[in-house]
Design a protein that fits this description.
three-stranded parallel sheet; alpha/beta; 12 helices; globular; single chain; 38% helix
């Protein structure tokens, strides 16, 4: 819980990791390049006092994570978003099984999401169902630019992806977090294009599609898709650290999202250990636009919703008494629409 000027902020970190990119776990030059690219994001966008040495960044331990998030970083609940990358790392970069160790030890501190791999076809579907039943996950993290054998990515509209999204509906996995936007070497930029979110969100109105990293640099696409699809949300991981290095650009990103999607569909995230939540939370609560603009005001109510109340609503998390936020009326009115038949989606079904 973060408190300032008499206001209480319930903080849900909507996107964090417990990864292993140690030299022992790194399988090839692509895994080595991936973690070094991750490190460049960390080094270039963090305040100097929060920059780790590369060796610590490759693999950090449980005490470090718990202290950074829950003692120093004001986080009340953190959501694990796994990123497998088994073509790059022997045991995977950050798998559901790795995260489950901490979820079991600290059940009230974490939400444990899992993932699916549509390119495995029927076998992938069975593996996904087994993970959901084992871990009780209510959300998935999807990495559409992940490599698998000769493939450099997939789309939400691919036939087997549609089958997996149907399985999500069946199993009650309602929160679909999908990395869209910024690329990481050597992954393919176009495989992270968010255009396929539009069709998937129309086909599955009962699922919530949280576009992680708000599609940057394709912010306009994010806003136009989010305006017509009431089940599309913006996850602010990667956008948040620009509050330090480029506060006007951060204001442009959040201001556009508030105008189009509104205050109820944006989620805070640190992307830990890419960035430390402490300075992100402190700077966001203090933030005011540094430039003249035509955007909705980022009020205390808006900040409370983004920092935790919106994610708490998606995951049915208990919010402490005394923490609430009024409605500021940002965003556009969006009409509810019927589902588009799966058969009408791009690609349709294949058997």
């Amino acid at each position: 819980m973060y408190e300032k000027d008499g206001e209480k902020y319930f903080v849900v970190d909507g996107h964090m990791h417990f990864w292993d990119a140690s030299e022992e776990n790194t399988k090839n030059k692509y895994g080595e390049g991936f973690i070094r690219c991750f490190y460049d994001y960390h080094k270039n966008l963090s305040p100097e006092d929060y920059v780790w040495p590369l060796e610590k960044y490759r693999k950090y331990d449980e005490p470090t994570l718990m202290k950074d998030l829950f003692e120093d970083g004001y986080v009340d609940v953190a959501i694990f978003q796994p990123t497998y990358l088994t073509d790059f790392y022997h045991q995977g970069f950050n798998t559901t099984a790795q995260d489950a160790v901490l979820k079991e030890k600290y059940p009230d501190k974490f939400v444990l999401n899992t993932s699916f791999e549509p390119r495995l076809g029927e076998a992938g579907l069975a593996m996904f169902e087994e993970k959901v039943r084992k871990y009780g996950s209510k959300g998935v993290k999807l990495y559409t630019a992940e490599w698998h054998d000769a493939s450099k990515g997939w789309k939400l509209t691919d036939p087997w992806a549609l089958r997996h999204l149907e399985k999500c509906e069946e199993l009650g996995v309602t929160n679909i977090h999908v990395h869209k936007g910024p690329t990481i070497w050597p992954l393919n930029r176009d495989s992270f294009d968010l255009a396929d979110v539009d069709d998937a969100a129309s086909t599955f109105p009962g699922l919530n599609f949280i576009v992680e990293h708000v599609g940057l640099p394709r912010l306009e696409d994010m806003c136009w898709i989010g305006t017509q699809e009431p089940n599309v949300y913006g996850g602010l991981a990667v956008a948040m650290p620009f509050i330090h290095t480029r506060p006007a650009y951060f204001g442009q990103v959040v201001g556009e999202l508030l105008y189009w999607l509104g205050e109820d569909r944006l989620l805070f995230a640190s992307d830990y250990a890419l960035w430390h939540p402490k300075w992100l939370v402190e700077k966001f609560v203090d933030y005011q636009y540094p430039m003249e603009n035509e955007y909705p005001e980022i009020t205390t109510n808006v900040k409370k919703k983004i920092l935790g109340l919106n994610a708490a609503k998606l995951y049915d998390l208990k919010v402490p008494e005394g923490v609430s936020a009024g409605d500021e009326g940002t965003g556009q009115d969006v009409t509810e629409k019927p589902a588009v038949p799966v058969e009408a989606s791009v690609g349709g079904h294949s058997e």
